[in-house]
Design brief:
Shape: flat
Number of strands: 49
Strand content: 35-45%
Radius of gyration: 27 Å
Distance between the termini: 26 Å
Helix content: under 10%
């Protein structure tokens, strides 16, 4: 298995001469296509027109379903929104998206909010019918309950409305406040607010506008609420919550945390623990490990007393990871390993940088028991058992230029690119590795993609694709021209290349942002679990699995589809051989813009499609590599 990390946005454009071809299939619609949405787990493409939404199956080469103006409404529906002053409200009025952990689609079309079963086309929620006098500000899906929590404004007041999808109705509502007091909370300037809901046993916990509410799941009765809460986590005993508060503005790094009782919402500890930049929370059942930039210790559930006699040494903590029962962390400029009692396991700390502000890109264990660290300026490996550096001298990077790396788990080596140099970080080497290849790049500042093949490495930038053998020889270097228009088309291509073909995400890991803080859980054997799976009981897991299977099969669909979904889902993680890119057509006298399919293993362009729209609508299936292009009222399907 190969793990990939890319630390800058991925985008490149290219073109070599290649014949244009016609669409394999074309599906015509009554009016121009406005939006396309691909479900990568099923391969179904959802097509939005002015007053119609349809689902197209490329496998069956036909429309599976369509819903029209009766459900979607017309543009005239937008007039009813005039009574709501939406000048500052952060509300997307033209939305079509997949609902995570479900087969539902959520849409905001012509002033109506819709929840649609993506396989059958059944409209399971229509705001015009269910909430005709309300404006939905935000929707939160609860997969375990198969329900939505809607934050709405109605009659100049805000409510939380609980919609049960199985019953098709609003089961209850809970008042949140009046319009004057809450409107600013949903303004565009407050887009970083973390509204969410968690279901646990008989209660729902809802964090809305920095207010934490405990509600009875059946009636919606508010058991208690706490103001000024920024985040919360359910402890595995079900009796406590970890709460996190901001001690400054919305983006302030000053925090405090405490434990509260789920029964009454009362704080357990006498006073909050104040800190800056929470990095890690780990629930051990009767105590909680907390790592933040000013300390690192275990705290007792009962009274908040520190479990370790003193904080793990260090300051300006940047990153903490769990390795078995041990904790590896970076404090200021040093890397330190401690056991579950907070005792240092190495004779001395490992200095990884001479700059305390150095950004941490990677910190983790290799298959051979070495710890690899990559910062913005340095890289090296450390023996996990002894705490000694594998190489006496660090590899030096240029922090002003892109740094790309890939870990080849099978060969147990890192391949790293920076400042026109390619390195192999091999834990079996005794001396610091020198670059095995020097690359003369056209645009080193936009270098953004690194792929590993049996023959070597493929590099991509905004204007070229380069192939380097494992011996360091340049096998190919294709330089390309960008189209002359602005970057609107390029943005769409970047999304396709980054998500569909690389299957990777940026792993910049300096101080963990507040929005990305999560809590992990340890069982009695010391094994780490992700939160949702571990908090669910066995009965709840079985119930959720049954519901998931039922949703996947749909009304008249067979189990073969759900099997296909599983196969497609697995394939999503592995397709990094091709990319569709945007380019100038270099054919003589041509002014066309084209989409070109590039094979990254050899730099060959194997397909070309003319795209003349100023803002082209297209999607690429990451499993089959089929391209769907919306051209006026036609959906053009190009099979690979």
């Amino acid at each position: 298995m190969i793990k990939t990390s890319i630390l800058v946005p991925f985008l490149f454009v290219s073109f070599l001469g290649l014949a244009q071809r016609a669409a394999t299939y074309t599906q015509e619609f009554a009016s121009p296509i406005e939006k396309l949405l691909l479900n990568p787990q099923t391969g179904i493409v959802y097509v939005k027109e002015d007053t119609k939404l349809s689902a197209y199956s490329p496998d069956e080469k036909k429309l599976l379903w369509e819903i029209g103006e009766r459900e979607i409404g017309a543009k005239s529906n937008l007039k009813k929104l005039a009574e709501f002053d939406l000048t500052d409200v952060n509300k997307d009025m033209d939305l079509l998206e997949l609902v995570e952990e479900s087969n539902y689609i959520y849409a905001n079309i012509n002033g109506r909010e819709l929840v649609i079963h993506g396989l059958t086309g059944e409209v399971v929620f229509n705001s015009e019918k269910v909430l005709p006098n309300a404006l939905i500000i935000k929707q939160i899906f609860l997969p375990l309950e198969d329900s939505f929590g809607f934050i709405v404004v109605e009659n100049r007041k805000f409510y939380l409305k609980y919609f049960d999808l199985s019953q098709g109705k609003i089961s209850w509502e809970a008042p949140l406040g009046n319009e004057a007091s809450l409107k600013s909370a949903f303004s565009k300037s407050q887009a970083t607010r973390m509204d969410h809901m968690e279901s646990y046993q008989d209660n729902l916990y809802a964090l809305i506008n920095n207010n934490l509410l405990s509600l009875d799941k059946k009636s919606g009765k508010i058991n208690w609420f706490l103001p000024e809460i920024n985040q919360f986590y359910v402890c595995q005993n079900g009796k406590n919550l970890v709460i996190v508060k901001n001690r400054g503005g919305m983006v302030s790094t000053r925090k405090s945390f405490n434990l509260v009782e789920t029964s009454r919402g009362k704080s357990i500890w006498k006073s909050d623990v104040e800190t800056v930049n929470l990095l890690k929370l780990e629930d051990w059942g009767d105590k909680i490990l907390v790592a933040h930039s000013q300390g690192f210790n275990m705290y007792s559930y009962a009274d908040g007393a520190k479990y370790w006699k003193k904080d793990v040494k260090g300051s300006n903590f940047k990153q903490v990871i769990s390795i078995g029962d041990d904790f590896l962390y970076i404090s200021d400029k040093d890397m330190i390993l401690v056991d579950k009692l907070g005792v240092n396991k190495w004779k001395k700390d490992i200095e990884i940088s001479d700059n305390s502000e150095d950004e941490i890109h990677h910190l983790g264990m290799t298959k051979s028991g070495k710890i690899m660290y990559i910062t913005a300026t340095y890289g090296n490996m450390v023996d996990y058992q002894t705490g000694t550096k594998i190489w006496k001298r660090n590899i030096k990077f240029d922090p002003q230029l892109p740094l790309l790396y890939r870990y080849d788990e099978q060969k147990d080596i890192f391949l790293i690119y920076n400042d026109e140099n390619l390195y192999k970080f091999d834990p079996n080497l005794n001396d610091k590795p020198e670059p095995f290849a020097k690359v003369k790049a056209k645009s080193d500042k936009t270098m953004s993609g690194l792929e590993v093949f049996d023959w070597g490495v493929s590099l991509t930038s905004q204007s070229e694709v380069i192939g380097i053998s494992r011996e360091g020889n340049v096998l190919f270097q294709n330089k390309y021209e960008q189209p002359g228009e602005t970057g609107r088309q390029a943005l769409k291509v970047a999304g396709i290349v980054g998500a569909a073909y690389l299957g990777t995400r940026s792993t910049v890991q300096s101080v963990v942002a507040n929005s990305s803080l999560t809590m992990t859980y340890r069982d009695d054997q010391g094994n780490v679990h992700i939160s949702r799976d571990y908090l669910l009981s066995d009965d709840q897991r079985r119930s959720l699995n049954r519901r998931s299977t039922a949703n996947a099969v749909g009304a008249d669909l067979t189990s073969a589809l759900s099997q296909n979904v599983a196969k497609r889902y697995n394939a999503l993680k592995q397709n990094s051989n091709f990319a569709y890119i945007f380019a100038k057509d270099t054919t003589k006298n041509s002014k066309n813009k084209v989409l070109v399919k590039v094979r990254k293993m050899d730099g060959k362009e194997v397909d070309k499609l003319i795209v003349n729209d100023l803002k082209p609508l297209y999607e690429v299936d990451p499993v089959t590599e089929t391209l769907f292009y919306g051209n006026q009222n036609k959906l053009m399907v190009f099979l690979p």
